[in-house]
Write a structure and sequence with these properties.
The protein has 233 residues and is of the alpha+beta class. It has helices spanning 10-14, 24-27, 92-103, 136-139, 213-217, 225-232; strands spanning 3-7, 22-23, 33-38, 42-48, 51-55, 61-63, 69-70, 72-76, 82-86, 90-91, 109-126, 143-160, 171-178, 184-202, 204-208. Bound molecules: zinc ion (ZN).
Length: 233
């Protein structure tokens, strides 16, 4: 069985709880693949084969230290149950549909890993915020945007059922890192060229809440949360 570990929630991020609360060394114990962001909503985190990398808003990419902390991450010990191979150009929308159908995953969390050649990757990366932290809708207004063409690498992320919006982001949330470690980010569109698509359903979810004073003191029951998530994506 594949367990999905979720560290904090979208609801908390929407409310501006950007402070890193979970140590990377702890997070890495729950899986070898994952995505997230770092302290202060700093960039786009991707964990590949147990190694965490951060794509910063200026496009710089670096390895993340075990002592650094994340405010939000999703992790899985990735054991694919379905694999498909494609040697044709298909876009994100087409792939999302194919994956969802193949894995019958609409009502489950699932993980997706696409490796190989991409014709196009359209990515962005959130910018590190300063205290006092703004709400997410404000924080995402200034981001780095990157277009990569003819790139080889790993796209990894999760599907969250839309009825669980607020714990995660409903639908697909995927990050990318090229094999040379120079290109990556939060992917909002892509075109595959010659890739392998691996998938795994997560039959359960382990949700880790931050054990901090800030988390205890903030009322995150925001009636506009769903609207805010939509506006931030
Ligand atoms: Zn992201």
């Amino acid at each position: 069985m594949n367990h999905l570990y979720q560290y904090s929630t979208m609801g908390a991020l929407v409310g501006g709880l950007f402070e890193g609360t979970f140590k990377m060394s702890e997070v890495l114990k729950s899986g070898n693949y994952g995505i997230g962001t770092m302290d202060g909503l700093d960039g786009e985190l991707i964990i590949i084969e147990g190694k965490p990398y951060l794509i910063e808003s200026n496009g710089n990419i670096r390895e993340v230290d075990a002592e650094e902390r994340t405010p939000f991450a999703s992790m899985i010990e990735f054991k694919p149950t379905h694999t498909l191979n494609y040697k044709e150009i298909l876009n994100k929308e087409q792939m999302d549909e194919i994956i969802l159908e193949e894995i019958e995953g609409m009502n489950y969390f699932h993980a997706v890993k696409i490796t190989g050649k991409f014709k196009l990757i359209k990515a962005r990366a959130v910018k590190k915020q300063k205290k006092p932290y703004p709400k997410l809708v404000e924080a995402v207004k200034e981001q780095g945007y990157f277009d990569y063409t003819d790139t080889t690498g790993t796209l990894f992320g999760f599907y969250t059922p839309h009825f669980i919006q607020g714990v995660g982001v409903g639908g697909y949330h995927v990050h990318y890192l090229s094999d040379d470690g120079k290109e990556g980010g939060h992917v909002f569109d892509y075109e595959i060229e010659d890739v392998s698509v691996e998938m795994a359903l997560a039959e359960d979810l382990i949700l880790k809440m931050p054990e901090t004073e800030t988390y205890r003191q903030n009322d995150l029951n925001n009636p506009d949360m769903l609207k805010d998530i939509e506006a931030s994506e």
